[in-house]
Amino acid sequence: MENLLLLIPLLPLLGAIINGTAGYFIQKRFGGKTNGIIATASISFSFLIALYLFFRLLGMEAENRAIILNLYSWISAKTLEVGFELVMDPLSAVMILVVSGVGSLIHLYSIGYMHTDKSQWRYFAYLNLFAFSMLVLVMADNLLLMFVGWEGVGLCSYLLIGFWYQDSDKATAGMKAFITNRVGDFGFLLGLFFLIWGLKNAGADISVVSLSYQALAESADKLSGIEFSGIALLTIVGLLFFVGATGKSAQIPLYVWLPDAMAGPTPVSALIHAATMVTAGVYMIARLNFIYVLSPTALTVVALVGAATALYAATMGFAQTDIKKVLAYSTISQLGFMFAAVGSAAFASGIFHLMTHAFFKACLFLGAGSVIHAMSGEQDIRKMGNLKKRIPVTFYTFLVASLAIAGVPGLSGFFSKDEILYRSFMSAQGFAGIWGYIVFGLLLLAALCTAFYMFRLVFITFYGEEVRSDESVIHHIHESPKSMTSVLIVLAVLSVLGGYIGLPEIFGVHSAFEGFLATVFEKSGSALNLPSSHSAEWIIMFLSTVVAASGIFAAYQIYYKNGYEGARNIRERIKTVHYIVENKYFIDEIYNLIVIEPVKILSYLLSLFDKYVIDGLVNLCGKITVIFANLDGLIDKYVVDGAVNLTAQGIKFAGERMRGLQTGRIQDYVYIMVTGGFLGLVLIRIINYFAGN
Amino acid sequence: MDFILSHILSLMTFLPLVGMVIVALIPSRYPQYIRYFSVLVSGLVFLLSLVMYAYFDRDSTDLQFVEHFVWIRGFNIEYFMGVDGLNVSLVILTALISLIACIASLGIEKKVKGYFAMFLLLMTGMMGTFVALDLFLFYIFWEVMLLPMYFLIGIWGGPRKEYAAIKFFLYTLFGSVLMLVGIIALYYNSEPTTLVDGTAASHTFNIMKLTTENDFSSKAPLFGISFAKLVFVLFFIGFAIKIPMFPFHTWLPDAHVEAPTPISVILAGILLKMGIYGILRINYQILPEATQWAAPVVAVFGVINIVYAAFVCMAQEDLKKLIAYSSVSHMGFSLLAMSSFSEPGISGAVLQLFTHGVISPMLFLIAGVIYDRAHHRDINKFGGLAHIMPEYSAFTGLAFMASLGLPGLAGFIAEVLCFIGAFSAFKLMTVIAATSVVITAAYYLWTMQRVFLGPKNPRYEGYPDLNLRERFTLYPLALIIVILGVYPMIILDIINPTIFRLINTLR
After folding, report:
1. Would an 8 Å CB–CB cutoff place B431 in contact with chain A?
2. If you average pLDDT over every residue of chain A, what do you get?
3. Quick one: DSSP state of residue A501?
4. How far is CA B255 from the centre of its chain?
5. Which chain A residue lies closest to B166 (C-alpha atoms)?
6. CA-CA 20 to 30 A from A63: which of A237, A693, B199, B431?
């Protein structure tokens, strides 16, 4: 049974390898549909296996519900022993099912959506590779292996955003996504380093650090007393991991890549940038719940950033005219809700919303894809209108999903969002204090905005008098093929029914979803000891219903009749505000000014420094050596050689003088010999005298 | 087989030298014979390295495959070779990268005979440097390596080849002179001991004896400076030039830019590793106290290497120069991590030598592929190559990702071990070094963007994708990079025991 676990990520990897290596020839020989079928089949089989294992998991006793596959020792360095281990416990089971389930649907949808593309083989290889990475992310049994998936999905996201790389803007969007994510990863890695340091060096007495969740959960308590520079280590670790999450899950301040990521094919936006990858941060925090519950500070920061992002991104949805951009900001906003949930220590609620959001947001994105498909590639909602009748299946599924995200009672989004609002409110009465109320307030406002911008989108796109576009485009409008619409229908059904597995307690039932996840989060409940209140939950449920209704009503008032034009008066009145919001608060420009340009300038200056100062010094040393060598040469020529010449001349001179001595008479020679010999003896004596002393 | 196993290190070292003699005897009018014969020789060396890997005892911390006898009795010089965890992976790397570089050299057209003769001589020098355990022998191989390298850059290089070759030569020579002084100082201060055959010797060049039987920290100071620290600095500068460590790194970009592709491959893949290896083998083992004294400073230089070079990379316009600076940056990881004296740190530092040793050759091969076609390497003048050369682009993407430390590929394992180890000793410095995670991604992706993505550039239309020779060099490296990322124990297993022993002596 454990070995089956390996097949879940392996099948998509196999699909990726087949399409990546032989895909080009397959497409040429059999057509791109075959590539799509290979990819879809591989991930669908993963889903089936996951489903089978999920039921096996349900059959186990609640306390030890986990299937673990220990493959081999991955990295080992005495004090660090990280295994290649996969796990399926209730939390990863939910994630696996969402990833492989929604993933299968989107693969299937892609076959139709991409049918005219020239490099479908590449598309499906990337998409399969993504599924593989995402499955590794959620199935890894330790933090380091999770990071493999974490970066792997980032790579696939980069590849798929820039899938149509011929367009420089699209390629740039991919690059922006990757680099922004790397900023987050910087935080993630530092969190990891602090954690390992804490476990090993700071008195927690762990001799071998394995980083497996089980081991971490057991030793988290030991870390709670440790401080670094006066701050609790667990707070540092929690916040640093959260920095990683803000990158991957597009929260303030690192959300900027996600709207640009819409440059990728629409099914990619649905799968990666809505349903699965961007939720990785939420999953990670839920996974590390045992760390976060020990640091209320970190939790509160997570909740606040989440709630602020939820509202902030929702406001940007007001002024966007690109159908995908609206949904992108909506995704950022909904992710904010999930972070607010986990930040309120309501981990199960966060994961619940993650799941329902995967259904309705995938449905919305794929619906948008169907709209774009119908409109011959047009994404500007100002050029749409009255599509209700022309593409009815798309319309009705889109409507259902919109109702779900707006939080209309009875649909999945209602239950999960309401749960979050309630939990954040209750956190205010526990560890979060006043901050909890602020989170709650922000979320309520964000919920209002959500209902408004979603129905603004619905009314402008699907209602109104007529399509505001060229005749040729209008003529070509058609409903998408069955392979696409059937996926929409399945997702719409899930958007309705998905909520019923997690009904709130006040309905007199026990939430099946929360119960299933309880073993993973058992520690968190007891650690923070949060109160519960049925009356508060009823009131909040009522409030959120009112909020959803008012949002939809406001959108109806403004946009139902005249579409985009309906809001002209309002736009005129708040011209400046609209201008700022329309330009996304100029955050991109600000980042460019305070981060990117300085980095570029710094790198340029450093390269000049390297070239002229460091290398200049080296060359200077060389030059100085050469100068010395020349000087040496001069000395050689004039001093040493001069001395040599001088000697020669001296000898010549002496010779000329000495010639006078050669008289030819024997007496003279004897005289010189005797005198010379005597002088020589005296000289030797003198030398010996000094040498002797 | 017994003979091979007991002489495997000598065989690997001197087979290329024999090959060189044979190459010299083949008439120049048969360049094809010369080429394939050289590939055969380097292939044999690689096979031998695999045999060595297979027979290497993974649990032992002792030296293995030792060959040891007295060479020059008058000066107590021994012929002493052996491998342990510090150098075994580097021997395999040397054999592997030499083979790859030799295959890549098949494209060399100019003075084929001279080229391959020099190439094989270089192999002998490199292999010998890694396996020699007698300081004198080590020094000889170190110098032997220098000469062919000088000619390989100076004759077969690019436009500014003379400048680059001389700069490389003088710079390294400067370092080796300091090293030579260090060697002599150690020799004359070593305790009396016995040679391998039992005869008494007043001094020794034997690295192992210098490690175990001598305590240089207690020697009388020279010029008022501790003897051990002085000798440490002499060796360290010699090795730092080779790494290369800031501020001694500027020979590298010049040498790389001018060197022919296969020589860049050798330079980045093997030669740079000698600096770190030398420090670990000589400074760390023989002078442990001085090592501890210097560690914080070494770590600072490591961080400077990592971050400074990463920034400089971003401003480069020459693809090869960019890759050269990225090597400077990546060698900084080893410097930083080895200063931490922690198990993950030093394991990571040694593993980094191997992983960088396969990734950077791949990068240089990639730069070579495009230079062969376009005859320039200006990043800003390309664009849209992904349409024209998809296979090439895919391999470039893989190499870039490996180099920027994407988990699942080789580079990540070494880097994360380096970071984890370094963090236990140097918090702030590791945090600063970790910013390179972002900068590195930025310069690689930006390069990817400018060279491969965007609209098709008609100027490069019709360029052929990878040819057979290029595939033979790129495929194996790509495969190794992936395998090492998934299963790094292939290398960690053989290096770990020695490193744990080394750390014990340092503590």
Report:
1. yes
2. 89
3. G
4. 15
5. A622
6. A237
Interchain proximity B438–A602, CB inside 8 Å? no
Angstrom distance (rounded) from CA B304 to CA A606: 12
For residue A204, the model assigns a pLDDT of 58
A125 pLDDT more than 80: yes
pLDDT digits (tens, 9 = 90+) for B470-491: 999 999 999 999 999 999 999 9
What mean pLDDT is predicted for residues B177-181? 92
- Residue that has been written with the tokens 């969007």 in this structure: A173
pLDDT on residue A525: 63
Q: What is the DSSP letter of A465?
A: S
pLDDT in tens, A336-348: 999 999 999 999 9
Which of 213-252 (B) contact A at CB < 8 A?
Answer: 246-247, 249-251
Interchain pair A190, B434: CB under 8 A: yes
Amino acid A128: pLDDT: 95
Say how far apart CA B432 and CA B424 lie, in whole Å. 14
Nearest CA in chain B to A621: B171
- Angle formed by the axes of helices B410-425 and B288-314, to 10°? 130
Q: Nearest CA to A77 among A205, A185, A211?
A: A211
Which residue among B387, B420, B455 sits closest to A196, beta carbon to beta carbon? B420
DSSP code of residue B407: T
Q: State whether A78 and B343 contact (CB < 8 Å).
A: yes
pLDDT band for B300, please (50, 70, 90 cuts). very high
Best residue in B249, B352, B416 to probe A by mutation, most A CBs within 10 Å?
B416
Instruction: Residue A144: list chain B partners with CB under 8 A.
Output: 407, 416
pTM: 0.91
The answer to whether the CB of A509 falls within 8 A of the CB of A399 is: no
- The pLDDT, as a whole number, for residue A661 is 65
Residue A457 neighbours by CB under 8 Å, 6+ apart? A317, A323, A326, A327, A381, A402
Q: How many helices and strands in chain A, by DSSP H and E?
A: 31, 4
Distance, first Cα to last Cα, chain A:
100
Alpha-carbon gap, residue B470 to B448, rounded angstroms: 20
B311 touches chain A (CB under 8 A): yes
Structure confidence at residue A691 (pLDDT): 67
Between chains, do A165 and B417 touch, taking CB under 8 Å as contact? no
- Interface probe, candidates A17, A80, A231, A626, chain B, greatest B C-beta count within 10 A: A80
